[in-house]
Amino acid sequence: MPSALRLDSVTKRYGQTLAVDRVSFTAEPGRLFGLLGPNGAGKTSTIRMIAHITAPDSGTVTLGGEPVSPATQRRMGYLPEERGLYRKMKVGEQLVYLGQLKGMGAHEAETAARRWLDRFGASGWYGKKVEELSKGMQQKVQFVATVMHDPALVILDEPFSGLDPLNADVLQETVAELREAGRTVLFASHRMEQVEQLCDDLCLIAGGRVILAGSLREVRQRFGRDTASLEFDGDAGFLDGLERAGAVRILSRSAHAATLRLAEGTDARDVLRAALDSGADVDRFEVHTPPLAEIFRESVSGAAARA
Questions:
Q1: Whole-structure pTM value
Q2: 276-296, pLDDT tens digit by residue?
Q3: Per-position DSSP letters for the chain, written without gaps between them
Q4: What are 233-255's pLDDT values in tens digits?
Q5: The CATH number of the domain covering residues in 5-221
Q6: Looking at domain 225-288, does it have CATH number 3.30.70?
């Protein structure tokens, strides 16, 4: 059953510290929702209230219109940033145990565990102890524990930590399948490139407050098409000249590529002209909205300045 996750003016204090300040957002079924923020922003406190590990001081958290509770926990799968497998237990025994905690029968849990392990090319791990596995292998086992009971809401906190590129691709494909199957997926990460690749919607929290929210496309469009990327062969000195003149701010650069934020009044054609006048051979030149990492930095620094 599709289940939207809704937070309405959720607030949480720890002593004198206001960790979450009237946070509101909605994560819809069939869409991947990115929850972003710098360290100490309130993301983990928010996730713990969603998972009903802690309760808000005020405001409401609902899943499918029902206040979160021990009953809704069975409809959730939560992969925390800090992993928590029992190292001395065998993988299969542990997955069956965790599946039973979510309401599965023993046979049902074993079937699901074996199916998911096989999906990750890990069917041979079933009888191994967790302590025998590498960090990346343990990460895949914990992901299986998160999704094997077919939850309506999947919460993934830094899910790609410890995975090599090939296994990260497999996990990314699986997350996309969960979204296509109509699950509500909440994805917390510091890796902006993955958020851009995966997320439909996002919410940026800083200082416990929501400072930016909406669909990824809407959020990027708010910042305008004032970013230029180019690839070239030749001397890169023209980039320094543009920056010294205050025409651009260099966001990233390498020997043959750069991404630049255009200053107010700078035409993108000025950048292209400077590159060509320097004798560089330009292979690619594109004007676009700023990358999410730049939006993140600008929004967080702006919120800090206002505070």
A1: 0.84
A2: 999 999 999 999 998 888 888
A3: ----EEEEEEEEEETTEEEEEEEEEEE-TTSEEEEE--TTSSHHHHHHHHTTSS--SEEEEEETTEE--HHHHTTEEEE-SS----TTSBHHHHHHHHHHHTT--HHHHHHHHHHHHHHTT-GGGTTSBGGGS-HHHHHHHHHHHHHTT--SEEEEESTTTT--HHHHHHHHHHHHHHHHTT-EEEEE-S-HHHHHHH-SEEEEEETTEEEEEEEHHHHHHHT-S-EEEEEEES--HHHHHHHHTTSEEEEEE-SSEEEEEEPTT--HHHHHHHHHHTT-EEEEEEEEPPPHHHHHHHHHHHHHHH-
A4: 999 999 999 999 999 999 999 99
A5: 3.40.50.300
A6: yes
